[in-house]
Design a protein that fits this description.
The complex is a heterodimer of chains A (175) and B (172). Chain A has helices spanning 2-20, 26-33, 39-60, 73-90, 94-102, 108-131, 144-148, 153-173. Chain A has 175 residues and is mainly alpha-helical. Chain A has one domain (2-173). The mean pLDDT of chain A is 97. Chain B is mainly α and 172 residues long. Chain B has two domains: 1-92, no CATH class; 94-172, no CATH class. Helix content of chain B is 71%, strand content 0%. Chain B has helices spanning 9-27, 34-48, 50-55, 57-61, 68-86, 97-103, 107-128, 134-141, 145-165. In chain B, helix 8 packs antiparallel against helix 9 (145-165). The model of chain B has no long low-confidence stretch (mean pLDDT 95). Classes of the chains: A mainly alpha (175), B mainly alpha (172).
Chain lengths: 175, 172
């Protein structure tokens, strides 16, 4: 029960910041995919740069556990491309579709209905996928530092520098 | 700032990152959204054929029920509503501005593209085991290899379809 309340509170805070950052707008999502406006990329990278530092600080002192999704190349590449194609048509992703609805974008309802159907179709296809795509190139639950065999801070610090460099470039180009 | 009532995406993004850290710290929960659609579809299908749902491997893996993430996704809608009301940016809109400029105000066309897009996107997200929240934010924040590969292909797929849809026209 407490878990449900925490979920609701966390979602409210996240939705609040998504709306304030203009991430819930179709125009912003599609403009990013048309490489005209990087608002959603700025939001995502800022989130990740802050979260990665916090998560790994807490991880180093043993307070939190990681929750990694396996790296299955077939599923990530095919599923990723398929997701992206649908995203470019809808203009909202699963989380932002609900947020978009919250700020009055009722066209998100069509997308939400479509996503529920898509989830049902995948549930039907799952046994087949389990035997095929979900076995192609399975490297298990790996992180970049593990792959490179180095300490995670040697990955985090360069990533933050790259992120800041990208931000400066976006601002210079007016993206 | 260009738009009244909005914040810099850097600030809003960074603050949302703090929320993610808090969530992981206090409840051990990482952000995600697409599993909720599976659980919801399962709950709807259960109304009509509970026996079938009970036997389907994917619904055994992702049990149809209201959990932390389900409430999180509902919370996103509430939080967005509160933010929009507080900044006076709440507006009922059936056609996004960019869409309307390019395709006009045909309900069937927007509904059809959005519905099909949503179905394709969710099928892909479940195959990839995550969406821009689970892979794109939570996965990349943990430096998971899967998060970076998924995010790259999300954008490649999106670049393809968005550019096809708006090929040769449509202003920003």
């Amino acid at each position: 029960m407490m878990s449900l309340i925490y979920g609701l509170i966390t979602g409210i805070l996240f939705g609040f910041f998504l709306q304030k950052g203009q991430v819930l707008r179709y125009d912003k999502q599609i403009a990013a995919l048309r490489l005209k406006d990087m608002t959603i990329v700025k939001f995502m990278l800022s989130h990740v740069m802050v979260a990665m530092v916090g998560i790994y600080l807490l991880y180093d002192v043993g307070i939190v556990k990681l929750s990694l999704k396996p790296t299955i190349l077939g599923a990530l590449v095919i599923g990723g491309l398929v997701f992206g194609i649908g995203w470019g048509l809808l203009g909202y992703c699963p989380g932002t579709s609900l947020g978009a609805l919250g700020e009055g974008r009722i066209d998100a309802l069509w997308g939400i209905a479509g996503m529920l159907v898509g989830a049902g179709l995948f549930a039907e296809a799952y046994p087949f996928m389990q035997k095929t795509v979900l076995t192609w190139g399975d490297f298990g639950k790996i992180t970049i530092p593990q792959l490179l065999g180095i300490n995670h801070w040697l990955v985090i610090i360069p990533m933050i520098l790259i992120g800041i460099g990208l931000f400066r470039w976006f601002e210079k180009k007016g993206l | 700032m260009k738009n009244e009532g909005s914040w810099s995406p850097y600030l809003a993004g960074a603050l949302s990152g703090v929320v993610a850290i808090g969530s992981i710290w206090f409840t051990g929960k990482y952000f995600g959204a697409s599993t909720t659609f599976v659980r919801t579809t399962g709950m709807i299908e259960q109304i009509f054929s509970p026996e079938t749902v009970a036997k389907m491997p994917y619904f055994i893996k992702q049990v149809p029920k209201v959990d932390w993430q389900w409430m999180f996704v509902v919370g996103i809608a509430i939080g967005a509503f509160l933010a929009a009301i507080s900044s006076g940016t709440f507006k009922i809109q059936a056609f996004p501005d960019m869409w309307q400029k390019r395709f006009g105000r045909g309900t069937a066309f927007r509904a059809g593209i959005a519905f099909v897009g949503g179905a394709i996107a969710m099928f892909g997200a479940r195959l990839a085991d995550g969406c821009p929240s689970g892979h794109g934010l939570a996965g990349t924040s943990q430096l998971a290899v899967s998060g970076y590969i998924a995010l790259a292909f999300f954008f490649i797929g999106g670049l393809i379809s968005a550019n096809m849809l708006y090929k040769g026209g449509g202003q920003k």
